[in-house]
Structure formats: C-alpha cells, structure tokens
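Hey, can you fold this one?
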Amino acid sequence: MSNKMINSNNAPKAIGPYSHSVRTGDLLYISGQIPVVPATGEVAGDTFKSQTEQSMKNILAILEEVGLNFDNVVKTNIFITDMSKFSDVNEVYSTFFKDYFPARACVQVSALPKNVLVEIEAVASFN
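Sure. Predicted structure:
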C-alpha cells in the first residue's frame, strides 16, 4: 500500500515540512489546522469561537479536495490554550456535524504555532 500526500489550494499553506493530509488505504490523516485564512495568511480573529470556526473551515477544504465532508470524519484531536474556553470551542465545533459526532480528544496546551488559540486535526474514512 502506498501513501499519497494530499494538499489543497483552499487551505493555508503548511508552515513546516508536512502535508495537509496523507491518504493511506481508506483513511485520510489531516494535519493539525490552525485558524489561518488561506486568502490572507492572517489569523481569523482573536476569540476561541472565530479561531475554531476557521480551523474547521480549513479541515473542510482538505476534505473537499478528495470528495469528502464532515460525515466522513471518524476522529478529531483539538488543542486549545485555555480549557476554560472549552464550551466556546464545543459550541462552534458542533455546528460542523449533522447526524453524529466523531470520536474526539481535547487537551490544553501551553502554546500553538503563530500564537493561535486553537489547532484541530482529523482522521476521515473513505468508507
């Protein structure tokens, strides 16, 4: 089985030596997406809500690159810099899923790239 790197012009460029995602078999592993607006390269606002929304939009752009959507997501990991904002993140995150919520972890970290507040990674299935 070979692995295939998949990048999207509709997601922000990687800020390091990694791909937006890698497909292996029937799984797509999406790298952590920070809330950078692809068109401007700027961070989307300064709130947990605005940054969660942009991170999820970036994930959606990568999913759509291969014909998937949030119904295909089976696992996410969310990294936030302040656990007291957990409910703000949940409020926005929940709007991206229709009929079910994938497995998930959410952890507080001390810092994220570009000093953002949120980073989200995902695993999606082609099945």
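The first helix runs from residue 48 to 65. Let me know if you want another pass with a different chain boundary.
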